[in-house]
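User: Structure tokens for both sequences below?

Assistant:
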Amino acid sequence: MLCGLQASVCAQGTLCVSELLFQPRSGEAEYLELYNAGSAAVELSDLVIVRWVGDTLGARYALPQYTVAPHDYVVLTKDAASVAANFRVKFASKMLECSLPTYPNDGGSVVLALADGVVVEKFDYAPSMHGRLLRNKAGVALERRRFDVDCNAEGNWFSASSTSGYGTPTCENSQSQEWLVEETAFGFSSSLVSPDGDGYQDELVIDYQLENNDVYGQIAIYDARGNRVCRLLNDGLLGTHGEIVWDGTGDGGERLTSGRYVIYIDLYDLHGSKQVVKRTISVVY
């Protein structure tokens, strides 16, 4: 049984679970990110990570001495060099090596407690929290969106965005509540288009599934010099689902030269929220 009460939201001066890489790629290291959502500094060594066994608390893992400033992050891992080699670590000094439980790929719990065993927060994670269009979950961290609601609130966790490198250890999460959509709400049929009429990848299909039906967008394709070569959508209302097809040609129907192009999806709503999703696509013949 849990010893003490689990905090439903992050109290002042209390650390919160912020990000978790529980399924690293082969040979790479897991990491756990904590965030101080309060206005008072927290001494990390006053807390422990606890192994969750069945429905009880197991072994405790002491944390190193480190002061976590208000509204700041700290990352715990068994191998800081591995994390730094595979993610864009902005603040290396916030990476701390220590012993941690192993977090199973098929789901489990992260338990953060005080040294006396009183549980501060328990995060129950599962692979299903990742984006439904994410084909390969290895090397993709789960990020928390809000710290002012229960850690396990529905929809409070999601895959780190591809543009962030699928993880943001030591800095602000890429998936915050301000985002209009999840980046993985947009699926691309391929990373290339071959518009030569041979029946093989002649078109690129962009399909999407959105939670909100009031999102508008502009979708355009730019060449390597930043010139717009094709506009696929101009201030259109996307709706909750649909697909957009590009045949690999420019606005005038001309065949584009082989090379790399960038698809920009500029999203906005009538409340002033904005977001950009982008993807690199190759045109080949």
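Moving on to the next sequence.
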Amino acid sequence: MSLALQPQSNQHTDQELTTTVRTHLDWLESEAIHILREVAGECANPVLFFSGGKDSIVLLRLAEKAFRPARFPFPLLHIDTGHNFCEVLRFRDQRAAELQERLIVRDVDASIQRGTVRLRHPNDSRNAAQSITLLETINEFGFDAAIGGARRDEEKARAKERIFSFRDHFGQWNPRQQRPELWNLYNPSVHANEHVRVFPISNWTELDVWLYIQREQLAVPSIYFSHERLVVERRGYLMPVTALTPAANDESVLQRQVRFRTVGDITCTCPVASTASTVAEIIAETRLARVTERGATRMDDQTSEASMEKRKKEGYF
């Protein structure tokens, strides 16, 4: 007498189905973790940019998930323009100390003193000048890979860039010599005195970043949330009134409820009018935004002299 095999049931409970569904954040996270591990496995001396901004905060969380409980296989690096918001610098130092990871800070001021950076005016934006200090730091430590938080949705020049972005021995980027990345296969090989910039969250959007911050319950600097600040209306932007950016004689100083969508050099980074005081409110506001955070807040991106593509070709992040 033969025994018939009973077919296995293909039915699953709703709870089982729910646990197997991966969200778009899960896929983005997995891709970024894979890229970070690829850098650690293939590059001899990498470094991770950490400024205290929202994108680099997300990168730190991804690095934790990729390598903890071990230490990161790379130090953290910030190129300080000397014109950064103090709230962000305090957060940077606090977060690095909490993780007990090595933080390397190099200053544009030191490059100015060496004479390798020359500004037309002491209070000029130092965004572009960071490129020289960065290349000096890469040469100082012999880094062959620099991991950053740039995203393709930020700006049209960044949309051209590969995840593994090759830089020549002058630190320059040539969009016509980008390496193919078919099927997510990367080529991190570099020659002596060359390096590669790596962008694990290239495929993320500003909304993805805030959704991930919400999901992971990540702390961010206070200036990302709505607060009162003295500003002037200048060229369609709300320029913060500071010692570096005083109001002109013909400008009216206003007290506005604002927040910063991105953080950078005080002389060119502007807040936007906002009442969003929680991450959930920022997410709701971001869903309705029709201009990228750089387009809405970075004054120096709007001129041909300071175009992102030109700066990237000269070694910018």
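User: Anything stand out in the second?

Assistant: The two ends are 75 Å apart (CA to CA).
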